[in-house]
Specification:
Layout lengths: L12 E10 L3 H11 L5 E4 L15 E2 L12 H12 L7 E3 L3 E4 L3 H14 L3 E3 L3 E8 L2 E9 L2 E12 L5 H5 L4 E3 L13 E4 L3 H10 L11 H6 L4 E4 L1 H11 L8 E5 L6 E3 L12 H25 L7 E5 L9 E3 L7 H5 L7 E5 L3 E4 L6 E4 L5 E4 L11 E3 L8 H7 L2 H21 L8 H10 L7
Parallel strand pairs: 1-2, 1-9, 2-6, 9-21
Antiparallel strand pairs: 3-5, 4-5, 7-8, 8-9, 10-16, 11-14, 11-15, 12-13, 13-14, 17-20, 18-19
Helix pairs in contact: 1-11, 11-12
The structure holds flavin-adenine dinucleotide.
């Protein structure tokens, strides 16, 4: 690749905060809410025009319920759900044999409620602005450089929380990062899409009553007889039939259908593009183009083979390609598969999780699912990067292996990490210490006092 040298230039400092949160997805929302709770000056920079991140692409929130059926994420994430419910924008946390618990949310309500809550908390939200660089003083981050319609500007802060999902801030500030499995393979992305006019009653009763024809993975047929909000995963034989009979190009071996909150609505988690790197704009563009191309055949398959979809019609795609995996920081502790499967407890636990290891394998069409039987902790040290001071990370890019990331990546868990990072950032500012020096006992006490769930 040829290159040019950009001339050095002076840029304006647009704002200075106590705490700056970069990225307004599940982790960013709760980070900002927690940091702003006692009146600190908190800013949030978001590259899109709305808050919510992947909570706006038609996915259910997973992770509120543990493998033993108890609620393991409370605190600010639950407060967010309670506010959504007032607008009929969220369901109950419904038990699910495969996913432990599913909480359906309405994407537009997510955007509205998230903005309402942040605005009420006094968080200064800036949309349409991406983090393009960092301001460093040695190994200490002093702020970020943003790129937007306004051009290039700097935003400074005492503590920065990277909630970009991709570890954009951490990576640019020199934190060591890893990507994917041992071969660098990352879980494939999916462009979610939505159909209306779906007879979800017919769908669930067909699965419940015609068990030989409509076989689902892990979830027993009776479940569908008893639940009218659900996720279907499976119907593998139908896909094989559609491929053989009609030559349809279905990129997934499993049918994944999520009922929407609105009657007759279903979200489809079925496009799949191998080899996309979500930190590379050209690769992302290729993924977006290919995923959109896949939708017609998937829709034909659903209409012609899956009961309840006969009169369905296409309404929309999600606002962006859903990226499952990119960078993970190397933090003070790297969570592993053994920690997850061993239900490991940590003295510095700041959240409890229970979602299984769920990896859409980079190398083939399949999925690896492994349950631990109970819960495991997320240690604070996995949110604290090595090498760079005054930076915290929350969300799917915390310090884990590829396998552990497959478990901790779900949105309730990311929201719980966000709350912990926000509270830790507040303590850093108040006590004038760096994230690595936070008194974790006090942080844990504050989390519990404010309603979060931690194991004793
Ligand atoms: C197809 C798919 C299906 C999934 N299924 C489920 C599911 O059913 N349930 C579940 O709970 N989880 C699911 N997940 C996982 C979950 O959605 C993510 O792991 C989770 O959303 C990560 O949260 P986050 O806050 O770390 O990042 P994100 O949700 O990605 O939010 C990051 C935010 O940061 C912003 N941002 C990024 N870069 C910058 C930048 N440089 N400058 C400024 N802003 C930036 C983004 O616009 C975004 O708003 C799925 C993921 C995918 C892709």
């Amino acid at each position: 690749m040829t290159s040019i040298t950009e001339p050095q230039r002076t840029i304006p400092v647009r704002a200075q905060y106590d705490v700056l949160v970069v990225g307004g997805g599940p982790a960013g929302l709760t980070s900002a809410l927690a940091a702003a709770e006692d009146g600190l000056k908190v800013g949030l920079i978001e590259s899109r025009s709305f808050l919510g991140g992947n909570m706006t692409i038609g996915l259910p929130i997973l992770g509120f319920l543990g493998q033993k059926g108890n609620q393991i994420i409370k605190g600010l994430p639950q407060k967010f759900i309670d506010r959504l419910k007032v607008r009929k924008g969220a369901s109950e946390h419904r038990p699910c044999p495969l996913h432990m618990g599913i909480t359906l949310v309405e994407p537009e309500a997510v955007k509205t409620v998230a903005l309402e809550m942040l605005t009420e908390a006094g968080v200064d939200v800036t949309f349409y602005t991406a983090c393009a660089g960092v301001v460093m003083d040695g190994d200490t981050i002093k702020g970020i450089i943003t790129e937007s319609k306004s051009g290039r500007e700097a935003v400074l802060a005492k503590i920065v929380i990277d909630c970009t999902g991709d570890g954009d801030v951490a990576f640019r500030s020199g934190v060591p990062c890893e990507k994917g499995n041992e071969k660098g393979g990352m879980q494939p992305p999916t462009l979610m899409f939505c159909l209306a006019g779906v007879d979800t009653e017919k769908l669930r009763m067909s699965i419940a009553n015609q068990t030989r024809t409509y076989l689902t993975d892990f979830i027993p047929a009776e479940y569908f007889g008893q639940n009218n909000q659900f996720i279907v995963v499976g119907l593998r034989e139908l896909i094989a039939k559609a491929r053989a009979e009609k030559g349809l190009k279905i990129p997934n071996e499993r049918t994944i259908i999520i009922t929407g909150l609105r009657e007759g609505e279903a979200w489809l988690n079925m496009t799949r593009v191998a080899g996309v790197d979500g930190t590379d704009a050209r690769s992302l563009s290729m993924g977006e183009i290919e995923a959109r191309h896949q939708i017609d055949d998937i829709y034909t398959y659903l209409k012609d083979y899956v009961p309840g979809f006969e009169k369905s019609y296409f309404t929309k795609t999600a606002p962006f390609l859903g990226i499952r995996e990119t960078r993970r920081i190397v933090g003070q502790y790297v969570m592993t598969q053994e920690d997850v499967l061993g239900c490991r407890k940590f003295d510095d636990a700041i959240a409890v999780a229970s979602y299984p290891i769920d990896i859409h394998r980079p190398g083939d069409e399949g999925c690896t699912l492994i349950w631990c039987g109970d819960c495991y902790d997320i240690p604070y040290r996995s949110l604290v990067p090595t090498k760079v001071d005054n930076l915290l990370v929350a969300g799917r890019c915390i310090s884990t292996t590829h396998e552990a990331m497959g478990a901790i990546r779900v949105m309730a868990t990311c929201m719980a990490m966000g709350e912990a990072a926000g509270r830790a950032a507040k303590m850093c500012v108040r006590d004038n210490v760096s994230p690595a020096k936070v008194n974790v006992c006090r942080l844990r006490d504050e989390l519990v006092a404010k309603g979060a769930y931690l194991r004793s």
